[in-house]
Request: fold
Amino acid sequence: MIKSSQYSSDSFGAPELTPLIDIVFIVVVFLLITANTPLLQLPVNIAQSQEFVASDVASPGITVTIAAQKPYWAIDKQSFDDWPAFKSALLKTMAPEQTVTIAADKAAPTQPLLQLLALLNQQKIGNTHIVMEQPGS
Reply:
């Protein structure tokens, strides 16, 4: 009897594992690369009681407002069109122990807020409050 190699039991019995192993290795490499990405974090102290929040926000200091549209920055209701002008005005009016209160519009872009926080961190100003709207208000 002549056996045809086209219909041997080997071709129907075992699936080809090489493509499956290749795909599994690609998925493992992808997961290893993306799992090690560091997350950038900003430590934020959140008040536990309303009395603490009310007493701290009422203290005298500078109020910086970040708007949703240009001009983004304002110091005590005086707005500034660009970052260098705002930065120099803020550094001139700020005292070392003065409180900075930041009131940002919820529709404001994050870049102006991050620039302001980076400047305050650079100047070693830790007495900063971010005013947030209460849920349901």
